[in-house]
Design a protein that fits this description.
330 residues; mainly alpha; 3-stranded antiparallel beta sheet; 8 strands
C-alpha cells in the first residue's frame, strides 16, 4: 500500500514539473498582423502551419519524455496540439494595402516609393541596427517582401555625416546573406562574364546598353539630389573629385564603365528601388527604361539557387520591429 502511494505521489510531482516546464517554454509574440508562438525550451520556432516544431534531443523536455513511461507520451500528445492550434499564419503583404497604396516622389524622371514611418523603423532597428539622419533615406524598394518590409532603400549622397557614393543599399537580411554566399563563390566574376558574353537570341551589346542606362540613371538621380550641396562637395573633395563623385554610376564606378561589375548587392538594390514591378519573374526586355539589368539577372540566379527572394518562412523574425528578438530567431 505504501509503495503504491509513493508511486502515485511521484507521478503527481512529475506531471506538475512537466506542465510547469512546458508553460514556461512557450513565448508569444504579436507583430500586428499575426501571432507566432516559439517553443524556446524545444529550441525551435515556426511561422506557419506547414511546419510543426521538431523537438531537439538535447532539450530537458525531450530527456524527460524519453526517460519516463507511457503516461508521459499521453501527456505530450495533449500539450503539443494545444500549442499548434494557437498559432496563426502570417499574412503576406500581397493582400495588404501597404504594398499597393503608398506615397511616391519623382527624382530625375524616376518614380520612387517614399519610406513610411514603419519602414524607417525596420531599416534602422532591425536591418542596419543603427540610426540614420532624418533625410538620409529618400526612398525604399518599390515592392515590399511578402511580409511587408522594405528590401532596399535609397541612401542620400550628401545628407548624412559622410558622403555616400553608393546611391542604393540592399537591406533585406535574406537577400544580403544569399548574395554574400553567391559573391563568395565568384558571383562578381560570373556576373562580369555574363555582361561580356554574347546572347544568341538578342543583338550584341544589349547587356552593356542596359548597364549603361543603369549608370546614367544613377548619375542623374545623384546630381539632382545633391544639386544644392555642390559647395559642400567641393569644399570636402575639391572641384575635380566632386564632379567625378556626382557623375559616378552604380556603386560609385565611372558611368562609362559597362564591362565590370563591382558589387552585386548594389545592382540588386538599384533594381528593387527603380523597377516598378521588382519581381524576378519578369524577363529582361531590350530597351527597358526602368530597373537594373544586372540586378534583375542576379535575382533570377538566386531563385535558381533556391532562394525565395520575397521571403522564407522565418525571415520575418529579423525585420519585425514589433516583437522582441529571441535566441531561436533566424
Amino acid at each position: 500500500m505504501w509503495r503504491k502511494l509513493g508511486c502515485a505521489f511521484n507521478l503527481i510531482i512529475y506531471i506538475r514539473v512537466l506542465l510547469s516546464a512546458t508553460q514556461k517554454s512557450a513565448a508569444a509574440a504579436y507583430d500586428g498582423r499575426t501571432t507566432a508562438f516559439v517553443v524556446r525550451h524545444a529550441n525551435c520556432a515556426w511561422s506557419d502551419g506547414k511546419h510543426l516544431p521538431s523537438i531537439q534531443q538535447n532539450s530537458a523536455f525531450t530527456r524527460n519524455f524519453h526517460s519516463q513511461s507511457w503516461h508521459s507520451a499521453l501527456l505530450l500528445k495533449r500539450v503539443v496540439p494545444t500549442t499548434t492550434r494557437l498559432h496563426t499564419n502570417i499574412t503576406p503583404s500581397s493582400d495588404n494595402d501597404k504594398s499597393i497604396n503608398y506615397n511616391s516622389t519623382t527624382i530625375a524622371n524616376h518614380a520612387f516609393r517614399l519610406a513610411a514611418s514603419e519602414d524607417l523603423e525596420t531599416i534602422q532597428e532591425r536591418q542596419l541596427h543603427h540610426p540614420l539622419q532624418p533625410d538620409q533615406v529618400f526612398c525604399t524598394s518599390t515592392k515590399l517582401c511578402q511580409y511587408g518590409h522594405p528590401q532596399a532603400f535609397g541612401f542620400h549622397p550628401t545628407k548624412g555625416p559622410k558622403l555616400v557614393s553608393g546611391l542604393f543599399r540592399l537591406s533585406c537580411p535574406l537577400l544580403c546573406q544569399a548574395i554574400d554566399e553567391y559573391e563568395g563563390e565568384g558571383g562578381v566574376r560570373q556576373m562580369s562574364d555574363w555582361i561580356r558574353s554574347k546572347d544568341r537570341e538578342r543583338d550584341e551589346g544589349w547587356k552593356r546598353e542596359g548597364y549603361e542606362k543603369a549608370n546614367e540613371a544613377q548619375k542623374d538621380i545623384r546630381m539632382e539630389l545633391a544639386k544644392d550641396d555642390t559647395d559642400k562637395l567641393v569644399s570636402k573633395m575639391g572641384e575635380y573629385n566632386a564632379q567625378r563623385f556626382l557623375e559616378s554610376g552604380v556603386a560609385g564606378i565611372p558611368a562609362s564603365q559597362t564591362y565590370n561589375v563591382k558589387c552585386v548587392h548594389a545592382h540588386v538594390a538599384d533594381h528593387l528601388c527603380r523597377c516598378p514591378s521588382s519581381s524576378p519573374d519578369n524577363t529582361n526586355t531590350r530597351g527597358n527604361e526602368e530597373g537594373n539589368i544586372i540586378g534583375e539577372h542576379a535575382l533570377q540566379i538566386l531563385e535558381e539557387r533556391g532562394v525565395p527572394v520575397l521571403g522564407n518562412d522565418v525571415c520575418w523574425q529579423q525585420c519585425n520591429a514589433n516583437r522582441q528578438p529571441l535566441p531561436s530567431d533566424w
